[in-house]
Design goal:
Layout lengths: L11 H16 L4 H8 L3 H9 L6 H10 L20 H6 L6 H8 L2 H11 L4 H19 L1
Helix pairs in contact: 1-3, 2-3
Length: about 140
């Protein structure tokens, strides 16, 4: 993190935490308005948290973890990958540390959330592996 941030630039950690809030909110199918109501803030404030424009304070982060039913460290999962390290969870998501921003961007998309939910419903590991191989094959065919 040697690059200098502009005075109005959001901090990368705040952006990461906000992306994790958005991911969990979408998984739970909560609107920004409903989440805001449960936190005692406006939906505009939730938007600012999710963009990283406003920092989430410690007490609000604790409340978010309760409302979204995740441990506080959920919001920081994968953060070390953005600073050159590789966490255990990111190793499962990508083959190289350089791919992790793309992976997190996809997971935070509507399609990513839907795909993750659908795959998690499949209990058979062999079937999940076949889906992975199919996706790789389709991706490789796009390059040709």
């Amino acid at each position: 993190m040697s690059e200098k941030l502009g005075p109005r630039s959001p901090n990368p950690v705040d952006v990461h935490v906000g992306a994790r809030v958005r991911l969990r909110r979408k998984i739970l199918k909560l609107s920004q308005e409903k989440l805001g109501e449960q936190l005692g803030v406006t939906f505009q404030q939730v938007q600012k948290y999710e963009r990283g424009a406003n920092r989430v304070g410690a007490s609000r982060l604790w409340k978010l973890s309760e409302v979204l039913d995740v441990p506080v460290n959920f919001f920081y999962d994968g953060l070390s990958t953005e600073y050159g390290g590789q966490s255990e969870s990111s190793a499962l998501l990508s083959e190289t540390p350089d791919q992790s921003p793309v992976v997190y961007e996809f997971i935070n998309s509507t399609d990513g959330v839907s795909l993750a939910k659908a795959v998690l419903k499949i209990k058979n590991k062999a079937v999940r592996r076949q889906i992975l191989e199919l996706a790789r094959s389709l991706g490789d065919n796009q390059d040709e």
